[in-house]
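Last lecture ended with a question: if I hand you only a sequence, what can you say about the shape of the protein? Today we answer it with a concrete record. The protein is Integrase catalytic domain-containing protein. Below, first the input exactly as provided, then the predicted structure, then a couple of comments.
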Amino acid sequence: MKPITPTRIGEIWATDIAVFTESKQGNRFVLVIMEYLSKWAVTCALKSYDTDSIAQVLLYDVVLKYGLPSRIISDNGSSYISDGMTMVLDRLGISRSLTSVEHPQSDGLVERFNRTLKASLSIVAGQEPNTWCEYLPFVTFAYNTAKQASTGFSPFKIMHGRDAELPLFNPVKIQENTRPNARNWGQFLNRTIPMIHSKALENIKKAQDSQAKYYDKKSSTVKSFNNGDLVLRRNRKTGGFPKERWSGPWIITGPTNYEHTAYNITDKKNFKNTSKANVGDLRLWYSPS
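The predicted structure:
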């Protein structure tokens, strides 16, 4: 695979969908679009990830705010390769690169961010996982203003050429006679503003470090399966927050390529149900008995 090497800010963006518990607002998905050079992240909570929803975020939150990308990287999900999306990209003049089941690592930037995002939102949402939608913009801002180990700068500074000015940390005092509208705003800001300061950044840094160690460990381990092995498959479309979900068992029927980076699998309960899966999304299944 050729390395992804942008030559300027805004040239290459990558996108993916993260799946969450349904929020109080009815959202179950987060569309993530990341700029490759700065690592700047754009996030948007969605009730569905159809072509219209993705195209609107791409147009209004990327193109009209940061300029036209030369290329966008995504998987080959139906919403990304539909006729509607092809029309949008052709009209805007954006080329498209698709990752594959065999080599999804070419979109690893967004995949790692998604893990960090889920870990961070799990921390701030606490015992109310359906409130993650409320905190998404603040956690995203905290990520964008935190220094990245890979660049030595925050995505904000690389994207805008300066450090971000943060709101005051100290909470505003709410009096007993404060009117309801002012009280609601005061309580909301007192709860959310601290998330973009040191504690939230520290939690995000810990999440990043934990995910980096996990990713490095997983990447450095060569995993292979034999025909007939029973495995579980990570379910990327219907789970993942606050915990990963797996389906199976599936039966390994053979590798799809010479490198054994992906396998053909068959549902043990329904032999007509066959699929392909990347090796990173598979793990051995052990009978509970």
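Comments.
1. The chain has two domains: 12-165, 229-284.
2. The mean pLDDT is 83.
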